[in-house]
């Protein structure tokens, strides 16, 4: 097996430093994590970690480095680590972001990078909050297809135009970044929150679904869509780029149109 | 110190988040709609008011007791000011009600603040309405033509 293979015809000679072959930049950061250990301390506190990270690393990589090399007691949620499962929403430099989608190179290294749990939900440990109130609101808007007609023998057809009405809100990954960025939700946790309304929108405007009226009735509650103050925090926080505030406005319009 | 941490997926809901009974009717929707409609009406009413008082004729220098008395002798201005009073008071009250709902965390605080707010609104609206309809320009020493 020592036969020399001929060079493939498609081979292109690259200049040095072009095409990703160069060295990955390295930098030092201070990661300031809001710690809360209910077994040992009564209050949450800030803890700094000095780390050397690479230009390709994300905040999640920095948290992994802390947990694996510095302090194994650091607790946070993450599952897929690639922006799809929605487990690692946290407050990074005061803004709700997914740790797995926030590159360290995009953040300011001259100051500590602050990482804390999302706000408005009961804190359980370090960066982990109790998501049950969030999912309770999600359940209440009935996030599943309700169809009263006959079960079709094949798929349920839908035109591209009909699909376009709710395409944006199908992108939700239930990370809670929007709901936990909403100042109305922070007050008393009674508001349904943007995420529940986005997922209601996904079915209310689905031409195959027959229970839009029931969902509009649920959201016409005093803790429903009318508590939205259009501060756009949710739209700004959404890691999937969903136009959350617009979706809420569309649900408001649907409730109005149905009542008048 | 040890903490009591419930098992995951226990579906135990922190009591703070348990939503009160489903509200009946569409009060919040009507309030939301009223804010937008009254806002549009108030833009017209307030700028009309400012224009009539400050720009027309002698402008700001003409405003005195007699000027107001003259305006309220005209049913159009009576209706204009009445509409402005009611809409502005209800619009403002609903706005402050919203702020109380958003910022007051304890139910008792909310009830007290909103109680004070509603009493103040009722007093001001009734007093203002009474003044517009029972206004008598001929108080002692007034020299306008209608009182002679």
UniProtKB/TrEMBL annotation, chain A:
Transmembrane segments: none annotated. Binds 1 [3Fe-4S] cluster. Binds 1 [2Fe-2S] cluster. Residues 27-121 form the 2Fe-2S ferredoxin-type domain. It catalyses: a menaquinone + succinate = a menaquinol + fumarate. One of its GO terms (molecular function) is electron transfer activity. Its EC number is 1.3.5.1. NCBIfam families: dhsB, PRK05950.1. Belongs to the succinate dehydrogenase/fumarate reductase iron-sulfur protein family. This is Fumarate reductase iron-sulfur subunit.
UniProtKB/TrEMBL annotation, chain B:
One of its GO terms (molecular function) is metal ion binding. The keyword Iron applies. It comes from the Bacteria. This is Succinate dehydrogenase/fumarate reductase, cytochrome b subunit. Keywords: Heme, Iron, Membrane, Metal-binding, Transmembrane, Transmembrane helix. GO terms for cellular component: membrane. It comes from Paeniglutamicibacter gangotriensis Lz1y. The chain crosses the membrane at residues 29-52, 72-90, 111-135. It is found in: Membrane. The keyword rRNA-binding does not apply.
């Amino acid at each position: 097996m020592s036969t020399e293979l001929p060079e493939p015809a498609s081979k292109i000679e690259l200049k040095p430093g072009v095409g990703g072959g160069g060295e990955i930049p390295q930098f030092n950061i201070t990661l300031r994590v809001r710690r809360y250990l209910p077994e040992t301390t009564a209050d949450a506190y800030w803890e700094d970690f000095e780390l050397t990270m690479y230009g390709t690393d994300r905040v999640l990589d920095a948290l992994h480095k802390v947990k694996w090399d510095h302090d194994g007691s650091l607790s946070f949620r993450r599952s897929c680590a690639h922006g799809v499962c929605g487990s690692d929403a946290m407050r990074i430099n005061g803004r709700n972001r997914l740790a797995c989608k926030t590159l360290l190179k995009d953040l300011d290294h001259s100051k500590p990078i602050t990482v804390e749990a999302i706000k408005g939900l009961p804190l359980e440990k370090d960066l982990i909050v109790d998501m049950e109130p969030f999912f309770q609101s999600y359940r209440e808007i009935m996030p599943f297809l309700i169809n009263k007609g006959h079960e079709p023998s094949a798929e349920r057809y839908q035109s591209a135009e009909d699909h376009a009405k709710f395409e944006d809100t199908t992108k939700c990954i239930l990370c809670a970044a929007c709901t936990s960025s909403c100042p109305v939700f922070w007050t008393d946790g009674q508001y349904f929150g943007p995420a529940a309304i986005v997922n209601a929108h996904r079915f209310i405007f689905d031409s195959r679904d027959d229970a839009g009226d029931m969902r509009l009735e649920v959201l016409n509650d005093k803790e429903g869509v009318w508590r939205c103050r259009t501060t756009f925090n949710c739209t700004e926080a959404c890691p999937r780029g969903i136009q959350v505030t617009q979706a809420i406005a569309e649900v408001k319009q649907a409730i109005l149109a149905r009542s008048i | 110190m040890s903490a009591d941490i419930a098992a995951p997926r226990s579906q135990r809901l922190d009591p703070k988040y348990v939503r009160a009974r489903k509200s009946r009717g569409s009060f919040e929707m009507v309030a939301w709609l009223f804010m937008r409609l009254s806002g549009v009406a108030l833009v017209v009413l307030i700028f009309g008011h400012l224009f009539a008082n400050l720009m027309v004729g002698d402008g700001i220098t003409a405003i005195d007791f007699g000027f107001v008395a003259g305006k309220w002798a005209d049913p159009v201005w009576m209706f204009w000011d009445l509409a402005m009073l009611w809409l502005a008071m209800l619009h403002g009250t609903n706005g402050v009600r919203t702020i109380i709902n958003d910022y007051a965390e304890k139910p008792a605080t909310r009830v007290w603040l909103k109680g004070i707010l509603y009493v103040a609104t009722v007093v001001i609206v009734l007093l203002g309405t009474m003044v517009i309809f029972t206004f008598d320009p001929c108080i002692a020493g007034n020299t306008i033509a209608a009182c002679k």
